[in-house]
Design goal:
heterodimer, A: mainly alpha, three-stranded antiparallel sheet, 3 strands, 8% strand, globular, B: alpha+beta, seven-stranded mixed sheet, six-stranded mixed barrel
Chain lengths: 118, 893
């Protein structure tokens, strides 16, 4: 049974989080996602092909991303590439995960401020 | 691209193509494309190390993807199985019962053949098949070029055991009388103290004893300072010199032993040593275990020992037995739980392997039929999935996952069942006079093996239907009801052969279990005398320290002494315990007379029983003619005079026909008897359906002296409604404080114990028979249903051409009937052959088979029952077939 409650997917694994994040607001193919993640993390997270596609396959099965029907202009397109986009469930999941992380960060900062004060 | 990049890309492409079909469907092309992008970039950034990392990442993820698919398959299989609960439960049940029963059958026999605990290197331990006298044993033992070590054992030997100084009642504990080399030969380590030593154990030395760890725990309160402590054995003091290692209960612990006494002890410690068997050449009462020297073959040892025996025989002036050809010494493996002769071993293996193979083949045939039927129902589903792009391999894997899951579930259930059954078996008390350690444990090797066969059967029989189902072209399969080209009905098709075998194997199991069950049921005991109000007490005056004369006097007076106890009506004494073991009342002698009707010498095999006064009165079976033994017969008659004897009706009829036997003379060897009484036929053992000719002889002092009588039993007939056992026990304890009393029970309890054993033994076969029926029905119904589904179109065509529903029904039924008849015929033949094989190899089977093999109820009933059920199983799908609407069947052509 596919899960429909976004909260059920939290917390997200690091790789899945970065993949979903790179798809926010745009559609990407696998190589694009990889490059994006590399940039987002200043080179700290490198998704190797098998890892990347293993995660992508499971995200598709869970209904968080889907293949996009739209293709770029023919002169830029490569027929072998597939483009992926967030589903509405995927969007909710990444939003909730971001909120969760912000909460965590806020709590951590507060603690640090207290320590500095003392 | 340089050559490293090219090489890396080539390997990468290969690896990417090896990913599972469904993975490739979703992102296969993308994965390939990404590689092309990544390889040059990785080389640029990280060099060779990066390329290696890229490939490693691809390799590592490969098995995980397959595993993920497998998990999906298993989940899907679980859901599919849950969706068809009848198919699933029937499959699991037949596997569980089949594998469970098989494991129990094999575990039970392996239990007898398993190595006994506490003995070193059991596989090299041998025993001389026949019993041996002690002086001969010493000669064998001293042939050091052949024999590494050897020991003599006399067993089972009961001891009356009381703690030293304690006034408490003695207890009867079984042990062994052994030669001093016993522990060394067996390689048994002692937990404390010393073992026996040929140097220390001199003839006639003060008695010493080694006790088992179990005895030390249960009777000596695990006292660590017990070495040197004295035990009262049969009225004599014996010093404890050692405690055997944990779990060691003697060689062949089927009859567990707790006390080990050297054979060199003073003979007064055990009546078994009276008559000095240690120095007597003629008393072949010892069993010999030995280990051969390295490099000596069994055959060479047998020849060498045989030569010694012949030389000794010649020296003693013994004539060699002219009938005996070949070697007189034969060595058999002895490192087993119970001493099993090679013939018994062969029997155990053949019987069990045959039963095992029958049950397992039934289960397999059944599973195959079930899976075929199941997959045929899912043809459309498979076709749809094939047409939307599922790979054939994946579908086969999925179907296989279902059958493997089924096999596993069945296997697990069977393990639970095997544990349950073996627990029940182990809790049973066998009706034997000597304690028996019946501890059946599921043998894990057997369980694993049977489980493996079940799983292999699941895979094998799951694979064929899966391959067949996925081979179909989806197009015609998707058209409702269409089955592709019309196929000819194949009479000798694989499926029909399965059915024939199933019917045959079921009938074999049914008939064989029927023979045994009816045979056993018949032996359920109706002793032919009033059981209520009859109590049994066993006493052992010899081990209570009574001399033979004193014991005879005791026995003569006991009835009078006890008759004064309130509530007691009659008291009788017997040398054997009625219904104590499986072989009681087998003929053990031959009696003859020359005073028969026509003056010719007539002989008949007979069972000899020693009884005291009042035996028949206590049993409640008055003599037909003549009188019982009285006190006079407790003492021996002068040599040459005839000994008084009582015979039963069967013996009288055989020897004297219809004439009066009283006063006639009969002989047993050179002994002469005169008949003083004629008793009614009464059974005292079981498995012997007909009364056996029996001669009752008086219990005399001389007999006590000569024989190592292990017990005497008092039969106490009480007044109705009185429980006088307690009173008898206290009266005996008061009058004879040193008398050992044991096995106190009512006759009713004795018979119930025996009957529960019979019930249990037969219920195993009832289950086996029921299982055979159940499996056959399931299989037949499944396969007929499958056949009908397969032939829907053909039936549709026939109906469209004018066949009536009755004709269709008849066609399906008659085809089924042919198979059932063929199977029945084969089953008859098989059962007949098997019953001969079993009878030839074991007497118990022979008796039960002989009794029941010609029972018309069974011979006609079993196949009738089976074929009725089988035809019914065929009828249901046939009726469904007859209702097929030709329009529906032919619509999608």
């Amino acid at each position: 049974m596919a899960r429909t409650d976004p909260a059920a997917f939290l917390p997200l694994h690091k790789n899945r989080f970065h993949i979903l994040l790179s798809l926010v607001g745009c559609e990407q193919h696998g190589y694009g996602i990889m490059q994006d993640v590399l940039q987002q993390t200043d080179g700290a997270v490198r998704l190797w092909p098998a890892t990347l596609y293993g995660s992508i396959k499971r995200l598709i099965e869970e209904g968080l991303i889907e293949e996009s029907g739209e293709r770029p202009a023919p002169e830029l397109d490569d027929a072998r590439r597939r483009y992926y986009k967030l589903t509405s469930l995927g969007r909710k999941v990444i939003e909730m995960e971001c909120l969760r992380l912000e909460e965590l960060l806020r709590a951590a900062r507060k603690k640090r401020r207290q320590e500095a004060f003392e | 691209m340089n050559r490293w990049e090219k090489l890396c890309l080539a390997i990468y492409s290969r690896l990417a193509r090896a990913y599972p079909h469904e993975f490739r469907l979703i992102c296969g092309a993308d994965l390939d494309r990404l590689g092309e992008d990544m390889v040059p970039e990785t080389w640029r950034r990280f060099g060779l190390q990066g390329l290696v990392r890229l490939l490693a990442n691809t390799v590592i993820h490969l098995p995980f993807e397959y595993l993920a698919e497998f998990r999906q398959d298993a989940g899907y299989a679980c859901r599919m199985l849950a969706k068809s609960p009848i198919f699933t439960s029937v499959g699991i049940m037949s596997l569980a019962i089949g594998i469970g029963m098989c494991s129990v059958i094999l575990s039970e026999s392996n239990g007898l053949l398993r190595p006994p605990p506490g003995i070193a290197e059991p596989s090299t331990l041998l025993a001389i098949r026949s019993r041996v006298s002690y002086p001969y044993f010493e000669q064998y033992r001293d042939r050091h070029d052949i024999v590494a070590s050897a020991a003599a054992v006399l067993r089972p030997v009961p001891f009356a055991v009381a703690p030293s100084g304690g006034a408490s009642q003695a207890e009867r504990i079984y042990g062994q009388i052994v030669s001093p080399e016993y522990f060394r030969t067996l390689g048994v380590k002692l937990a404390a103290g010393r073992s026996f030593d040929p140097a220390a154990e001199k003839f006639g030395a003060a008695p010493v004893v080694v006790v088992s760890e179990r005895f030390w725990r249960n009777h000596l309160n695990s006292n660590p300072d017990v070495i040197g402590y004295r035990l009262r054995l049969n009225g004599r003091m014996a010093k404890i010199v050692g405690i055997a290692s944990r779990d060691f209960l003697g060689v062949w612990p089927w009859n567990p032993s707790d006390l080990f006494v050297p054979a060199t002890s003073d003979p007064s410690i055990a009546p078994e040593l009276s008559g000095d068997p240690v120095h007597q050449d003629e008393m072949a009462s010892f069993q010999v275990i030995l280990r051969l020297r390295n490099g000596v073959s069994k055959a060479a040892a047998e020849a060498a020992l045989d030569a010694i025996k012949r030389t000794l025989d010649r020296q003693k002036g013994l004539e060699p037995n002219p009938d005996r050809k070949g070697l007189e010494i034969s060595l058999i493996p002895a490192g087993t739980f119970s001493l099993v002769t090679p013939e018994q071993r062969a029997f155990i293996y053949t019987t069990n392997v045959i039963l095992w193979a029958l049950v397992l083949s039934l289960v397999c045939a059944n599973l195959a039929n079930l899976l075929f039927a199941h997959s045929s129902r899912r043809r459309r589903e498979i076709a749809i999935r094939l047409s939307v792009g599922a790979s054939r391999a994946r579908l086969v894997r999925q179907l296989l996952a279902e059958s493997i899951l089924l096999a596993f579930a069945g296997g697990l259930a069977s393990i639970a069942l095997a544990f349950g059954i073996t627990r029940i078996v182990s809790s049973l008390r066998l009706p034997e006079a000597v304690p028996v350690q019946l501890k059946v444990e599921p043998d894990f090797r057997v369980l694993l093996f049977t489980l493996a066969i079940g799983v292999i059967a699941g895979i094998g029989f799951g694979l064929f239907p899966a391959l067949a189902a996925t081979r179909t072209d989806p197009n015609p399969a998707l058209k409702e009801g269409s089955r592709g080209a019309l196929r000819r009905y194949r009479r000798l098709g694989l499926r029909n052969l399965f059915i024939v075998w199933q019917v045959a194997a079921s009938l074999m199991l049914l008939l064989i279990s029927g023979y045994v069950v009816l045979g056993y049921r018949h032996t359920a005991i109706d002793p032919g005398f009033a059981v209520a109000g009859l109590d049994l007490l066993s006493i052992d005056p010899v081990r209570g320290g009574y001399s033979a004369d004193r014991a005879a006097t005791l026995l003569a007076n006991l009835p009078d002494e006890l008759e004064n106890v309130p509530g007691i009506r009659e008291v009788g004494v017997t040398g054997g315990v009625p219904f104590t073991n499986l072989t009681a009342d087998r003929p053990n002698t031959v009696i003859s007379t020359s005073e028969g009707n026509d003056g010719r010498e007539i002989a008949c095999p007979a069972f000899r029983e020693r009884i005291g006064t009042g035996y028949f009165a206590a049993l409640g079976v008055p003599l037909l003619r003549g009188r019982e033994f009285d006190k006079r017969e407790g003492h021996d008659v002068a040599p040459g005079r005839a000994i008084p004897a009582i015979i039963n009706q069967t013996a009288a009829r055989t020897l004297f026909g219809v004439t009066d036997p009283i006063g006639r003379e009969i002989r047993e060897g050179h002994l002469k008897f005169v008949v003083i009484g004629l008793a009614r036929d009464v059974r005292s053992g079981f498995l012997m359906p007909k009364p056996v000719a029996t001669i009752f002889l008086p219990l005399t002092a001389a007999w006590f002296g000569r024989n190592q009588a292990q017990r005497l039993t008092l039969l106490v007939r009480t007044a109705p409604g009185r429980d006088a056992l307690q009173a008898v026990e206290s009266e005996l304890a008061l009058r004879h404080p040193d008398l050992l009393i044991f096995d106190v029970q009512t006759m009713q309890e004795k018979l119930e114990q025996l009957n529960s054993f019979i019930d249990w033994s037969s219920s195993i076969y009832v289950v086996l028979g029921a299982l055979a029926l159940l499996l056959a029905c399931i299989g037949l119904a499944g396969v007929t249903a499958y056949a009908v589904v397969q032939r829907t179109k053909e039936i549709g065509v026939r109906t469209a051409l004018g066949a009536t529903s009755g004709q269709v029904r008849r066609m399906i039924l008659s085809e089924g009937a042919v198979l059932v008849i063929a199977g029945s015929a084969l089953g008859y033949l098989g059962a007949f052959t098997l019953s001969r094989v079993f009878s030839a190899s074991m007497e118990t089977f022979a008796t039960t088979f002989a009794m029941r093999a010609n029972q018309p109820a069974l011979l006609a009933g079993a196949p009738l029952l089976l074929s009725t059920l089988a035809i019914l199983a065929c009828y249901l799908p046939a009726a469904r077939a007859a209702r097929i609407d030709p329009v529906t069947a032919l619509r999608e052509e």
